[in-house]
Specification:
CATH superfamily of the largest domain: Dihydrodipicolinate Reductase, domain 2
Largest sheet: 11 strands, mixed
Helix content: 25-40%
Radius of gyration: 24 Å
Number of strands: 17
CATH architecture of the largest domain: 2-Layer Sandwich
Bound molecules: NADPH dihydro-nicotinamide-adenine-dinucleotide phosphate, L-homoserine
Length: about 425
């Protein structure tokens, strides 16, 4: 038994993740006390509908989260989600000097500056490992292990629902709608899957990753976002025919201007083709994986379960043990590091590569007309493949790196060429040397 007084915890939320946290706190209490150097005592659990939680001792339950935060607790673990009223409760906890552990990516991607300032004002801890990539230890490596290195790129699959959908489309050739239905049936996607399929969830995670990697405050509003709802079986087949696969990627990059050497941060989420030989291509089902490049460390890969009650609870409990230890020792974990304040690079100025599939007239001079449009926008072509069928040819063009604005303008003008029957598929290409 430890001589230290218990660390008292308020748990806000007892759903998929909170329920697992409550269960593990109970089951592992002796082990956790030994690791922390003091017992962790669950002071109360705030939920919306206490009558729906027969699994929780009634004396622990409340529907008044603010009162629980204001009670005699040392740490607030927030597993409700969304911005308000959670933001108000967590700011109030931090201003009272209570440490906060949260998995709430939407809130962090919106209000991390306010939360960090409130934590700094009282010396409280703010930990959020579970907010990105569930069980995968990723934020602590970025925040602590790589704090002495210069990170240049973080690229990953950070949304399990969309990875399940795209992997299934690739494996079966099925349509987006059919595969989404399957994802809902299996419980991967919510009945309203908007946050996942439209890329909001991944964009919030990209904002958190970019903030940590580049010591710069990045919010969800700074992240260029495109979802997967418009991906067709034709896009997937076009990728496959090229030895590529389609993944929804969160990409956070330190972009160095080739002219003046100035640095900026690009944070973006979109579906992209990657080579089937790329490490991220083999990440299937609802798994997450994140690839980090740093000057001294080189390439690092993080892989595992990015969602689900127990995996996410693992990351939450890791944070809880860390902040409880800090309480016992009278110390504090790392503060927000936002000293670099690099500017955000607009998507239009961001260097990317495109794959463009076209159905064109099969007659002399067509390829030259198409190539001319690329040249007019200063976009260099890397490869061209042509296949003929009757009087129509299919052209597959992959570009070298150009700004996104130039690439978009090229596609827009190609659509207008009379010799082009149809633009079949346009998608960015990542994970290959330009
Ligand atoms: P759930 O919807 O399963 O649970 C939410 C909980 O919050 C429920 O217990 C609900 O109460 C409670 N709640 C909602 N509104 C209030 C309120 N106004 N006052 C008090 N309690 C309230 O969510 P999850 O467990 O899935 O997610 C929790 C957090 O973890 C979110 O931020 C999410 O983004 C994040 N996360 C989730 C992952 C996952 O796989 N599920 C993975 C990584 C992060 P009641 O039970 O009475 O309805
Ligand atoms: N909806 C998210 C996903 C949960 O599918 O990855 C984890 O944040």
């Amino acid at each position: 038994m430890s001589a230290n007084k218990p660390v008292r915890v308020a748990l806000l939320g007892c759903g998929t993740v909170g329920g697992e946290v409550a269960r593990l706190l109970d089951e592992q209490s002796a082990e956790l006390a030994a690791r922390v150097g003091a017992p962790i005592e669950l002071a109360g659990i705030a939920v919306r509908r206490p009558d729906k939680h027969p699994e929780v001792p009634a004396d622990l339950l409340t529907d008044d989260a603010q009162a629980l935060v204001d009670s005699d607790v040392d740490v607030v673990v927030e597993l409700i989600g969304g911005i308000e009223p959670v933001r108000t409760w967590l700011l109030s906890a931090l201003r009272q000097g209570k440490s906060v552990v949260t998995a709430n990516k939407a809130l962090l991607a919106d209000s991390s500056a306010d939360l960090a300032e409130a934590a700094d004002a009282t010396g409280a801890d703010l930990y959020f490992e579970a907010a990105v990539a569930g069980a995968i230890p990723l934020l602590r490596p970025l925040r602590e292990s790589l704090a002495g290195d210069r990170i240049t790129r973080v690229m990953g699959i950070v949304n399990g629902t969309t990875n399940f959908i795209l992997s299934a489309m690739d494996a079966t050739g099925a349509s987006y709608a059919e595969t989404l239905e399957e994802a809902v049936r299996l419980g991967y996607a919510e009945a309203d899957p908007t946050a996942d399929v439209d890329g909001y969830d991944a964009a919030a995670k990209a904002a958190i990753l970019a903030s940590l990697a580049f010591h710069t405050r990045v919010t969800a509003a700074d992240v260029h976002r495109e979802g997967i709802a418009d991906i067709t079986a034709t896009d997937i087949a076009a990728a496959k025919a090229q030895g590529r696969t389609v993944k929804l990627l969160a990409i956070c990059e330190r972009v160095v201007d080739p002219v003046d050497g100035s640095e900026s941060v690009s944070a973006r989420v979109y579906p992209a083709m990657i080579p089937r030989t790329h490490q991220l291509a083999g990440v299937g089902d609802a798994f997450n994986a994140v690839y980090v490049e740093a000057d001294a460390a080189g390439e690092l890969m993080f892989f595992g379960q990015g969602a689900g009650g127990a995996p996410t609870a693992s990351a939450v409990l890791g944070d809880l043990v860390a902040v409880a230890r800090n309480r016992v020792l009278g110390s504090r974990g790392p503060r927000e590091s936002a000293h670099a304040q690099l500017p955000i690079r607009p998507m239009a100025d961001t260097p990317t590569r495109y794959h463009v599939s076209l159905a064109v007239q099969d007659k002399p001079g067509v390829l030259a007309q198409v190539a001319q449009v690329f040249a007019e926008h200063d976009v260099s072509i890397a490869t061209v493949q042509q296949r003929d069928a009757d009087d129509t040819a299919s052209l597959v063009i992959v570009t070298h790196t150009a700004t996104d604005a130039a690439l978009r303008a090229t596609v827009r003008d190609i659509e207008q060429l009379p010799v082009v029957h149809e633009v079949i598929s346009v998608m960015r290409v990542e994970g290959e040397d330009a």
